[in-house]
C-alpha cells in the first residue's frame, strides 16, 4: 500500500480540500441557544457547516457526508468507512488534504487509528466542537476554519486534530475535559503547534509513519476493511477492591460461547493506578486470562504521563505507553498480525 502522494513536477498540483462529515457536537442541534448539554449530536449536514467558512486562497472545498452519529457510538462500521474513504480521497492527485468533522468523545481513537493504519503523507485533520452548531457562540465554525488552514499548509502531513487553536498529533491526542472549549491536550509531548490569525505556527514536526508499521499497514488495512469481525479487546480499570470478578466473568462467558468464534475475546487492556500498578486480586485474574491465551496489556488511568519501568522487569503484564482507549486499538492491531 503506497500512501506517498508527493507530486512530481509533471503531476497535477493539488488544489482541492475534502471535508468528510461524521456528525458529533459540531453538527449538533439544541432547542435553546444557551443549551450546551441537552443537544442532539449529528443533526446538521457537513455542507451546511461549511456555509460561510473562509476557504484558504487557491483552494476549493468539496464535502461528503459519511455518517451522522454521536461519536460515543462509533465502532468498526464507521471506522471501516472512514479508512476506505480517506484512502480513496488521498489517492486523488488534485486532493491536497482532508478535514474530518468528528465528535469529541472518541476523536482520540479515530485519529490514532487513522495515523497508525494509513500514516498519510498528506494532511488529514480532524476537528470538532464542544458546543452545538445552534449555540449562541458556537466554537465549531472557528475550529473548522482552522482545520482548513492546517489542511492547506505547505508541507503538512499525517493525522492531526485541531481544536481551540491548537494542533495535536493523532498519536498523542487526549480528551482531558468534559465541557471546556479547550478540551484536548497531547500529554507531556505538548501540541504540534497553533493556528493564529489564519496561519500555522509549528513547534514540532508533523506525524510520520512508524518504521515498524510499514510492512504491517497493508495487512491491517486489508483485515480492517474485510468482512470478518475485528479482534475483540476489552478495557478494564484497576481500583480499590478490584477482585478480578469481571475478568473471570468475561473468561467464563467466552468459554460458554466457544473459543472458535471469530468475535471471541482476544485481548484485555487494564488501566492501572499510578505507574500502571494493579490490585493483587485483579492481577491474579489477569494471569488466568493470559494462561487462557488472551493478550493482556497494562497502562495507567492517570490523565497525563505514561507507564515507566525502573529497569528490567519481571512483571508478566507488559506495559504500554498509551492512554487506555488508544492502547486498546494498538492491541487490536497487534492481534491482526499475530
From TrEMBL:
The keyword Lyase does not apply. PROSITE patterns: ASN_GLN_ASE_1, ASN_GLN_ASE_2, ASN_GLN_ASE_3. GO terms for molecular function: asparaginase activity. SUPFAM superfamilies: Glutaminase/Asparaginase. Residues 232-331 form the Asparaginase/glutaminase C-terminal domain. Residues 16-203 form the L-asparaginase N-terminal domain. Gene3D superfamilies: 3.40.50.40, L-asparaginase, N-terminal domain. GO terms for biological process: asparagine metabolic process. Pfam families: Asparaginase, Asparaginase_C. Keywords: Hydrolase. Substrate binds at residues 71, 104-105. Belongs to the asparaginase 1 family. PANTHER family: 60 KDA LYSOPHOSPHOLIPASE, L-ASPARAGINASE. This is Asparaginase. It comes from Malikia spinosa.
Amino acid at each position: 500500500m503506497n500512501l506517498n502522494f508527493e507530486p512530481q513536477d509533471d503531476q497535477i498540483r493539488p488544489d482541492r480540500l475534502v471535508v468528510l462529515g461524521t456528525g458529533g457536537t459540531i453538527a449538533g442541534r439544541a432547542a435553546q441557544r444557551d443549551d450546551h448539554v441537552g443537544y442532539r449530536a449529528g443533526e446538521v449536514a457537513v455542507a451546511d457547516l461549511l456555509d460561510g467558512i473562509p476557504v484558504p486562497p487557491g483552494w476549493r472545498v468539496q464535502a461528503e457526508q459519511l455518517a451522522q452519529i454521536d461519536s460515543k457510538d462509533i465502532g468498526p462500521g464507521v471506522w471501516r468507512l472512514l479508512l476506505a474513504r480517506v484512502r480513496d480521497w488521498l489517492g486523488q492527485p488534485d486532493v491536497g488534504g482532508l478535514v474530518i468533522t468528528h465528535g469529541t468523545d472518541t476523536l482520540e481513537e479515530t485519529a490514532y487509528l487513522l495515523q497508525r493504519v494509513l500514516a498519510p503523507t498528506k494532511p488529514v485533520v480532524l476537528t470538532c466542537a464542544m458546543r452545538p452548531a445552534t449555540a449562541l457562540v458556537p466554537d465549531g465554525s472557528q475550529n473548522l476554519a482552522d482545520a482548513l488552514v492546517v489542511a492547506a499548509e505547505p508541507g503538512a502531513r499525517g493525522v492531526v486534530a485541531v481544536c481551540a487553536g491548537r494542533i495535536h498529533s493523532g498519536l498523542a491526542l487526549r480528551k482531558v475535559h468534559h465541557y471546556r472549549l479547550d478540551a484536548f491536550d497531547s500529554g507531556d509531548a505538548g501540541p504540534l503547534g497553533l493556528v493564529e490569525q489564519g496561519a500555522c505556527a509549528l513547534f514540532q514536526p508533523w506525524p510520520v509513519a512508524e518504521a515498524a508499521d510499514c510492512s504491517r499497514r497493508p495487512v491491517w488495512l486489508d483485515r480492517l476493511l474485510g468482512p470478518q469481525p475485528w479482534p475483540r479487546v476489552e478495557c478494564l480499570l484497576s481500583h480499590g477492591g478490584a477482585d478480578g470478578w469481571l475478568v473471570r466473568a468475561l473468561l467464563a462467558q467466552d468459554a460458554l460461547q466457544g473459543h472458535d468464534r471469530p468475535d471471541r475475546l482476544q485481548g484485555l487492556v487494564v488501566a492501572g493506578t499510578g505507574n500502571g500498578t494493579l490490585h493483587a486480586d485483579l492481577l491474579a485474574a489477569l494471569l488466568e486470562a493470559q494462561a487462557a491465551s488472551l493478550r493482556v496489556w497494562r497502562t495507567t488511568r492517570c490523565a497525563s504521563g505514561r507507564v515507566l519501568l525502573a529497569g528490567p522487569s519481571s512483571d508478566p503484564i507488559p506495559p504500554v505507553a498509551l492512554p487506555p482507549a488508544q492502547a486498546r486499538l494498538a492491541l487490536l492491531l497487534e492481534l491482526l498480525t499475530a
